[in-house]
Amino acid sequence: MDSDRLADCDTMAPDEPNDHRWEDWTWDETVFRGTAAYYRKGREPYSRGLGQALAERIDLAGPSRLLDVGCGPGIVALLFASLFERVVGLDPDPDMLHEARRVADETQVVNATWVQMRAEDLPGSFGTFRVITFAQSFHWMDRPRVASAARQMVESDGAVVQIDVLADRRPPDGPHPGVPEAAIDELRRRWLGTDRRAGQGFRNTSPSEEDEVFRAAGFAPEEIVIVPDRRILERSVDDVVARVLSTSSTAPHLFGDRLDEFVNDLRGLLLSHSPGGYFSVALSDNRLLIRRPI
Ligand SMILES: C[S@@+](CC[C@H](N)C(=O)[O-])C[C@H]1O[C@@H](n2cnc3c(N)ncnc32)[C@H](O)[C@@H]1O
Protein backbone atom coordinates (compact mmCIF):
# COMPACT_ATOMS: atom_id res chain seq x y z
CA MET A 1 0.00 0.00 0.00
CA ASP A 2 1.23 3.44 -0.89
CA SER A 3 0.21 5.11 2.36
CA ASP A 4 1.39 8.55 1.22
CA ARG A 5 -1.49 8.75 -1.23
CA LEU A 6 -4.21 8.01 1.28
CA ALA A 7 -6.58 10.70 2.44
CA ASP A 8 -7.57 8.72 5.53
CA CYS A 9 -7.43 11.25 8.35
CA ASP A 10 -5.82 8.55 10.50
CA THR A 11 -3.02 7.89 8.01
CA MET A 12 0.06 10.01 8.13
CA ALA A 13 1.26 12.63 5.71
CA PRO A 14 4.68 12.11 4.07
CA ASP A 15 6.29 15.09 5.81
CA GLU A 16 5.81 13.83 9.33
CA PRO A 17 8.85 13.58 11.63
CA ASN A 18 11.06 10.57 11.28
CA ASP A 19 10.77 9.18 14.79
CA HIS A 20 7.82 7.37 16.41
CA ARG A 21 7.45 5.28 13.31
CA TRP A 22 4.72 2.67 13.04
CA GLU A 23 7.11 -0.18 13.86
CA ASP A 24 7.61 1.27 17.34
CA TRP A 25 3.94 1.80 18.12
CA THR A 26 1.86 -0.47 20.32
CA TRP A 27 -1.89 -0.73 19.97
CA ASP A 28 -4.07 0.13 22.96
CA GLU A 29 -7.81 0.36 23.38
CA THR A 30 -7.90 4.16 23.50
CA VAL A 31 -6.85 4.62 19.85
CA PHE A 32 -10.34 5.64 18.71
CA ARG A 33 -11.82 6.37 22.15
CA GLY A 34 -14.55 9.00 21.99
CA THR A 35 -14.50 9.30 18.19
CA ALA A 36 -17.62 7.19 17.54
CA ALA A 37 -20.03 10.03 18.35
CA TYR A 38 -18.44 12.17 15.64
CA TYR A 39 -17.60 9.60 13.02
CA ARG A 40 -20.68 9.41 10.82
CA LYS A 41 -21.25 13.14 10.84
CA GLY A 42 -17.61 13.99 10.35
CA ARG A 43 -16.26 11.54 7.79
CA GLU A 44 -17.01 12.16 4.18
CA PRO A 45 -19.05 9.42 2.52
CA TYR A 46 -17.55 6.59 0.52
CA SER A 47 -18.11 6.68 -3.24
CA ARG A 48 -21.63 5.92 -4.32
CA GLY A 49 -20.48 3.21 -6.69
CA LEU A 50 -18.54 1.19 -4.11
CA GLY A 51 -21.07 -1.64 -3.67
CA GLN A 52 -21.57 -2.02 -7.40
CA ALA A 53 -17.82 -2.09 -7.99
CA LEU A 54 -17.52 -4.90 -5.45
CA ALA A 55 -20.46 -6.87 -6.82
CA GLU A 56 -19.13 -6.63 -10.38
CA ARG A 57 -15.85 -8.27 -9.37
CA ILE A 58 -16.78 -10.88 -6.80
CA ASP A 59 -19.54 -13.43 -7.21
CA LEU A 60 -21.88 -12.74 -4.32
CA ALA A 61 -24.59 -15.18 -5.39
CA GLY A 62 -25.93 -17.72 -2.93
CA PRO A 63 -25.69 -17.53 0.84
CA SER A 64 -22.74 -15.14 0.94
CA ARG A 65 -21.47 -13.50 4.11
CA LEU A 66 -19.36 -10.39 4.68
CA LEU A 67 -16.94 -9.82 7.55
CA ASP A 68 -16.01 -6.14 7.97
CA VAL A 69 -12.89 -5.95 10.15
CA GLY A 70 -12.35 -2.68 12.02
CA CYS A 71 -15.92 -1.78 11.09
CA GLY A 72 -16.09 1.39 13.20
CA PRO A 73 -19.67 2.69 13.26
CA GLY A 74 -20.64 0.19 10.58
CA ILE A 75 -20.49 2.46 7.55
CA VAL A 76 -19.16 -0.11 5.07
CA ALA A 77 -20.93 -3.11 6.61
CA LEU A 78 -24.26 -1.30 6.35
CA LEU A 79 -23.51 0.07 2.89
CA PHE A 80 -22.91 -3.49 1.66
CA ALA A 81 -25.55 -5.24 3.79
CA SER A 82 -28.07 -5.63 0.96
CA LEU A 83 -25.48 -7.45 -1.16
CA PHE A 84 -25.02 -10.28 1.35
CA GLU A 85 -27.17 -12.75 3.20
CA ARG A 86 -25.43 -11.79 6.44
CA VAL A 87 -22.83 -9.24 7.49
CA VAL A 88 -20.66 -9.28 10.59
CA GLY A 89 -18.94 -6.10 11.76
CA LEU A 90 -16.00 -6.50 14.10
CA ASP A 91 -14.30 -3.75 16.10
CA PRO A 92 -12.68 -3.48 19.55
CA ASP A 93 -14.27 -0.10 20.31
CA PRO A 94 -17.61 -0.55 22.14
CA ASP A 95 -18.88 2.93 21.25
CA MET A 96 -18.27 2.32 17.55
CA LEU A 97 -20.34 -0.87 17.77
CA HIS A 98 -23.07 0.89 19.72
CA GLU A 99 -23.29 3.43 16.91
CA ALA A 100 -23.33 0.65 14.27
CA ARG A 101 -26.19 -1.10 16.09
CA ARG A 102 -28.11 2.16 16.45
CA VAL A 103 -27.90 2.94 12.73
CA ALA A 104 -28.71 -0.66 11.76
CA ASP A 105 -31.88 -0.45 13.89
CA GLU A 106 -32.75 2.97 12.54
CA THR A 107 -32.36 1.87 8.93
CA GLN A 108 -33.99 -1.52 9.58
CA VAL A 109 -31.00 -3.56 8.53
CA VAL A 110 -31.78 -6.97 10.02
CA ASN A 111 -28.95 -9.12 8.65
CA ALA A 112 -26.06 -7.51 10.57
CA THR A 113 -24.28 -8.71 13.70
CA TRP A 114 -21.71 -6.69 15.64
CA VAL A 115 -18.80 -8.23 17.52
CA GLN A 116 -16.47 -6.50 19.97
CA MET A 117 -13.08 -8.01 19.27
CA ARG A 118 -9.62 -7.22 17.97
CA ALA A 119 -8.75 -8.57 14.55
CA GLU A 120 -5.72 -10.24 16.10
CA ASP A 121 -8.09 -12.65 17.88
CA LEU A 122 -9.47 -13.98 14.59
CA PRO A 123 -10.26 -16.53 13.21
CA GLY A 124 -12.38 -17.36 16.27
CA SER A 125 -15.41 -19.50 15.52
CA PHE A 126 -17.09 -17.35 12.90
CA GLY A 127 -16.74 -19.76 10.01
CA THR A 128 -15.97 -18.61 6.50
CA PHE A 129 -16.92 -15.53 4.52
CA ARG A 130 -17.23 -14.71 0.84
CA VAL A 131 -15.75 -11.27 1.41
CA ILE A 132 -13.65 -9.84 4.22
CA THR A 133 -13.28 -6.05 4.15
CA PHE A 134 -10.76 -3.78 5.83
CA ALA A 135 -11.88 -0.18 5.29
CA GLN A 136 -9.18 2.26 6.42
CA SER A 137 -8.41 -0.18 9.22
CA PHE A 138 -5.72 -2.72 8.27
CA HIS A 139 -2.83 -0.37 9.11
CA TRP A 140 -3.88 -0.46 12.78
CA MET A 141 -3.44 -4.21 13.02
CA ASP A 142 -0.73 -6.84 13.43
CA ARG A 143 -0.85 -7.25 9.67
CA PRO A 144 0.83 -10.66 9.08
CA ARG A 145 -1.22 -12.25 11.83
CA VAL A 146 -4.49 -10.76 10.65
CA ALA A 147 -3.80 -11.51 6.97
CA SER A 148 -3.11 -15.13 7.90
CA ALA A 149 -6.38 -15.34 9.87
CA ALA A 150 -8.22 -13.79 6.90
CA ARG A 151 -6.71 -16.42 4.60
CA GLN A 152 -8.22 -19.14 6.82
CA MET A 153 -11.62 -17.44 6.84
CA VAL A 154 -12.11 -16.43 3.22
CA GLU A 155 -13.94 -18.81 0.86
CA SER A 156 -11.98 -20.12 -2.13
CA ASP A 157 -14.11 -18.10 -4.59
CA GLY A 158 -14.13 -15.02 -2.35
CA ALA A 159 -11.72 -12.19 -1.62
CA VAL A 160 -10.23 -9.92 0.98
CA VAL A 161 -10.85 -6.29 0.06
CA GLN A 162 -9.12 -3.23 1.42
CA ILE A 163 -10.96 0.05 0.98
CA ASP A 164 -9.01 3.31 0.98
CA VAL A 165 -9.70 6.94 0.29
CA LEU A 166 -7.11 8.43 -2.04
CA ALA A 167 -5.53 11.76 -1.21
CA ASP A 168 -5.43 13.40 -4.60
CA ARG A 169 -8.26 15.77 -3.99
CA ARG A 170 -9.59 17.98 -6.72
CA PRO A 171 -9.56 21.68 -5.90
CA PRO A 172 -12.90 22.38 -4.23
CA ASP A 173 -14.60 23.88 -7.23
CA GLY A 174 -17.69 24.86 -5.22
CA PRO A 175 -19.37 27.98 -3.86
CA HIS A 176 -17.47 27.95 -0.54
CA PRO A 177 -13.80 27.98 0.45
CA GLY A 178 -11.94 24.70 0.87
CA VAL A 179 -11.32 23.25 4.34
CA PRO A 180 -8.10 24.84 5.70
CA GLU A 181 -6.32 21.51 6.27
CA ALA A 182 -2.86 22.99 6.89
CA ALA A 183 -4.19 25.42 9.49
CA ILE A 184 -6.11 22.62 11.23
CA ASP A 185 -2.94 20.55 11.35
CA GLU A 186 -1.05 23.49 12.77
CA LEU A 187 -3.70 23.82 15.49
CA ARG A 188 -3.32 20.11 16.28
CA ARG A 189 0.41 20.57 16.69
CA ARG A 190 -0.08 23.57 18.95
CA TRP A 191 -2.44 21.63 21.18
CA LEU A 192 -0.97 18.14 21.15
CA GLY A 193 2.63 18.53 19.97
CA THR A 194 4.43 17.79 16.76
CA ASP A 195 4.28 14.02 17.02
CA ARG A 196 1.04 12.44 15.92
CA ARG A 197 -0.85 10.93 18.84
CA ALA A 198 -2.32 7.45 18.58
CA GLY A 199 -3.93 6.10 21.76
CA GLN A 200 -1.41 6.33 24.58
CA GLY A 201 1.51 6.56 22.16
CA PHE A 202 2.71 8.37 19.05
CA ARG A 203 2.69 7.21 15.47
CA ASN A 204 4.12 9.44 12.79
CA THR A 205 4.01 6.97 9.90
CA SER A 206 1.75 4.21 8.63
CA PRO A 207 2.95 0.87 7.28
CA SER A 208 3.25 0.27 3.55
CA GLU A 209 3.89 -2.83 1.43
CA GLU A 210 0.62 -4.44 2.30
CA ASP A 211 0.50 -6.46 -0.89
CA GLU A 212 3.63 -8.32 0.29
CA VAL A 213 1.95 -9.03 3.63
CA PHE A 214 -1.10 -10.54 1.92
CA ARG A 215 0.98 -12.48 -0.60
CA ALA A 216 2.99 -14.02 2.23
CA ALA A 217 -0.30 -15.10 3.80
CA GLY A 218 -1.39 -16.93 0.62
CA PHE A 219 -3.18 -14.35 -1.51
CA ALA A 220 -2.73 -13.52 -5.20
CA PRO A 221 -1.40 -10.05 -6.07
CA GLU A 222 -3.91 -7.29 -5.57
CA GLU A 223 -6.38 -6.16 -8.19
CA ILE A 224 -6.73 -2.40 -7.96
CA VAL A 225 -10.08 -0.77 -8.66
CA ILE A 226 -10.55 2.99 -8.47
CA VAL A 227 -14.07 4.13 -7.70
CA PRO A 228 -14.52 7.86 -8.29
CA ASP A 229 -17.29 10.04 -6.98
CA ARG A 230 -17.40 13.50 -8.49
CA ARG A 231 -19.71 15.07 -5.92
CA ILE A 232 -18.81 18.38 -4.30
CA LEU A 233 -20.22 18.48 -0.79
CA GLU A 234 -21.18 21.44 1.33
CA ARG A 235 -19.75 20.92 4.80
CA SER A 236 -20.62 23.05 7.81
CA VAL A 237 -18.25 24.13 10.55
CA ASP A 238 -19.92 21.47 12.75
CA ASP A 239 -19.21 18.81 10.12
CA VAL A 240 -15.54 19.74 9.97
CA VAL A 241 -15.26 19.86 13.79
CA ALA A 242 -16.82 16.37 13.85
CA ARG A 243 -14.31 15.15 11.27
CA VAL A 244 -11.40 16.40 13.35
CA LEU A 245 -12.81 14.74 16.49
CA SER A 246 -13.41 11.49 14.58
CA THR A 247 -9.70 11.17 13.89
CA SER A 248 -7.36 9.11 16.05
CA SER A 249 -4.69 11.85 16.24
CA THR A 250 -7.21 14.41 17.53
CA ALA A 251 -9.54 12.03 19.37
CA PRO A 252 -11.54 13.72 22.14
CA HIS A 253 -9.78 11.88 24.98
CA LEU A 254 -6.45 13.47 24.01
CA PHE A 255 -7.70 16.89 25.15
CA GLY A 256 -8.79 15.74 28.61
CA ASP A 257 -10.92 18.38 30.32
CA ARG A 258 -9.87 21.03 27.77
CA LEU A 259 -11.88 19.57 24.89
CA ASP A 260 -14.36 22.48 24.85
CA GLU A 261 -11.48 24.93 24.68
CA PHE A 262 -9.95 23.08 21.72
CA VAL A 263 -13.30 22.98 19.94
CA ASN A 264 -13.70 26.74 20.49
CA ASP A 265 -10.27 27.33 18.98
CA LEU A 266 -11.10 25.09 16.04
CA ARG A 267 -14.42 26.80 15.41
CA GLY A 268 -12.72 30.20 15.52
CA LEU A 269 -10.13 29.03 13.03
CA LEU A 270 -12.76 27.62 10.66
CA LEU A 271 -14.91 30.74 10.82
CA SER A 272 -11.89 32.91 10.12
CA HIS A 273 -11.48 30.99 6.84
CA SER A 274 -15.19 30.92 6.03
CA PRO A 275 -17.24 33.60 7.82
CA GLY A 276 -20.38 32.05 6.29
CA GLY A 277 -19.60 28.81 8.13
CA TYR A 278 -19.53 26.49 5.10
CA PHE A 279 -16.84 24.75 3.08
CA SER A 280 -16.85 23.02 -0.31
CA VAL A 281 -15.28 19.57 -0.36
CA ALA A 282 -14.56 17.56 -3.48
CA LEU A 283 -14.92 13.87 -2.67
CA SER A 284 -11.77 11.84 -3.15
CA ASP A 285 -11.65 8.70 -5.23
CA ASN A 286 -11.96 5.45 -3.34
CA ARG A 287 -9.77 2.45 -4.02
CA LEU A 288 -10.56 -1.22 -3.68
CA LEU A 289 -7.60 -3.58 -3.31
CA ILE A 290 -9.02 -7.00 -4.06
CA ARG A 291 -6.99 -10.04 -3.02
CA ARG A 292 -8.11 -13.55 -3.85
CA PRO A 293 -6.81 -16.65 -2.06
CA ILE A 294 -4.49 -18.98 -3.99
C1 LIG B 1 -10.42 4.74 10.56
S1 LIG B 1 -11.57 3.71 11.41
C2 LIG B 1 -12.43 2.96 10.03
C3 LIG B 1 -13.84 2.57 10.39
C4 LIG B 1 -14.66 1.95 9.24
N1 LIG B 1 -14.01 0.77 8.71
C5 LIG B 1 -14.89 2.94 8.12
O1 LIG B 1 -14.25 2.81 7.08
O2 LIG B 1 -15.69 3.84 8.30
C6 LIG B 1 -10.52 2.38 11.96
C7 LIG B 1 -11.28 1.37 12.82
O3 LIG B 1 -10.39 0.27 13.05
C8 LIG B 1 -10.60 -0.20 14.36
N2 LIG B 1 -9.40 -0.92 14.80
C9 LIG B 1 -8.22 -0.40 15.21
N3 LIG B 1 -7.39 -1.37 15.58
C10 LIG B 1 -8.06 -2.54 15.39
C11 LIG B 1 -7.72 -3.91 15.59
N4 LIG B 1 -6.53 -4.26 16.06
N5 LIG B 1 -8.66 -4.84 15.30
C12 LIG B 1 -9.87 -4.48 14.82
N6 LIG B 1 -10.24 -3.20 14.61
C13 LIG B 1 -9.34 -2.25 14.89
C14 LIG B 1 -10.84 1.07 15.15
O4 LIG B 1 -11.48 0.81 16.40
C15 LIG B 1 -11.68 1.89 14.19
O5 LIG B 1 -13.05 1.69 14.41
3D structure, described in words:
The chain has a single domain (3-291), classed as 3-Layer(aba) Sandwich (Rossmann fold), CATH 3.40.50.150. It contains 9 helices and 11 strands. It has helices spanning 36-42, 50-57, 75-80, 94-106, 143-153, 181-192, 210-216, 237-245, 259-273; strands at 65-69, 86-91, 112-116, 129-135, 154-165, 197-198, 201-202, 223-227, 232-236, 278-282, 286-291. The strands form 3 sheets. Strands 3-2-1-4-5-11-8 form a 7-stranded mixed beta sheet. Helix 5 packs across helix 7. Residues 10, 27, 31-32, 69-72, 75-76, 91-93, 96, 118-120, 135-137, 140-141 line the site of S-adenosylmethionine.
In brief, what are we looking at here?
With 294 residues, the chain is of the alpha/beta class. It is built from nine helices and eleven strands. S-adenosylmethionine binds next to helix 3.
Topology record:
Blueprint: H1 36-42, H2 50-57, E1 65-69, H3 75-80, E2 86-91, H4 94-106, E3 112-116, E4 129-135, H5 143-153, E5 154-165, H6 181-192, E6 197-198, E7 201-202, H7 210-216, E8 223-227, E9 232-236, H8 237-245, H9 259-273, E10 278-282, E11 286-291
Bound molecules: S-adenosylmethionine.
S-adenosylmethionine is lined by residues 10, 27, 31-32, 69-72, 75-76, 91-93, 96, 118-120, 135-137, 140-141.
